[in-house]
Design brief:
CATH superfamily of the largest domain: P-loop containing nucleotide triphosphate hydrolases
Shape: globular
Number of helices: 10
Strand content: 5-15%
CATH class of the largest domain: Alpha Beta
Largest sheet: 5 strands, parallel
CATH architecture of the largest domain: 3-Layer(aba) Sandwich
Number of strands: 5
Distance between the termini: 14 Å
Structural class: alpha/beta
Mean pLDDT: 94
Low-confidence stretches: none
CATH topology of the largest domain: Rossmann fold
Length: 205
């Protein structure tokens, strides 16, 4: 079974691209959903997060306070990077292990191809694990506006979130195909069809 990594910058629309691919019959594993599963109450990752970051990371009902955790690890300061590395040591092996199990199940079903959607795939170097890489890109102006509209951020906060991640240009530089998402839904669907054809061509060689 061929595996395709799907990533892009924050607010570039990779989740929308994932849904379009699913509508085309392509199985997609969402790493963000997996990351939520592995920190549910009773999961070892949540226990370890509390041990490392403190009981303040829990909400009253015992679930992870994602906003409190995000406040610690988001940003480009040395402290934020240090805390982010601590979190990644806890979560990444468990996330990748779960994704591996899901890919094995799809292969056992006879699926010829599957997509793994993840935000920091290039940063972690895990894009090299897949047969091909599809990157969703948009202009910095569009990226910032979408993030402000979606999250209610002011421009400065939106830019802080963008700056905390690898640039879109760096991700595009290692892509096998790129979906440009500066336009409307119809334009995006056309871009996905074009880029996916490039991916299929690469995998058929």
């Amino acid at each position: 079974m061929h595996t395709v990594g799907l990533t892009g910058g924050i607010a570039c629309g990779k989740s929308t691209v994932a849904r379009i691919l699913q509508e085309r019959g392509v199985p997609v594993i969402d790493a963000d959903q997996v990351s939520r599963q592995i920190v549910k109450p009773g999961e070892p990752a949540l226990v370890e997060i509390v041990e490392v970051f403190g009981i303040r990371m829990l909400q009253g009902d015992g679930t992870l306070d994602r906003k409190a955790l995000g406040a610690l690890v988001i940003g480009d300061s040395e402290e934020a990077r240090r805390e982010r590395r601590k979190l990644e040591v806890i979560t990444h092996p468990r996330i990748f292990g779960r994704i591996g199990e899901m890919l094995q199940a799809l292969a056992a079903e006879g699926k010829p191809i599957a997509v793994v959607e993840a935000a920091i795939m290039v940063e972690s170097g895990n894009h090299r694990l897949y047969s091909a890489l599809l990157v969703v890109a948009c202009s910095p102006t569009v990226q910032r506006k979408r993030l402000m509209d979606r999250q209610g951020f002011d421009e400065q906060t939106a830019q802080k979130w963008i700056d905390s991640q690898m640039s879109v240009a760096e991700k595009v530089a290692v892509a096998d195909a790129v979906v440009n998402n500066d336009g409307n839904r119809a334009g995006l669907e056309a871009e996905v069809a074009r880029a996916w054809a490039e991916i299929e061509d690469k995998l058929s060689r």
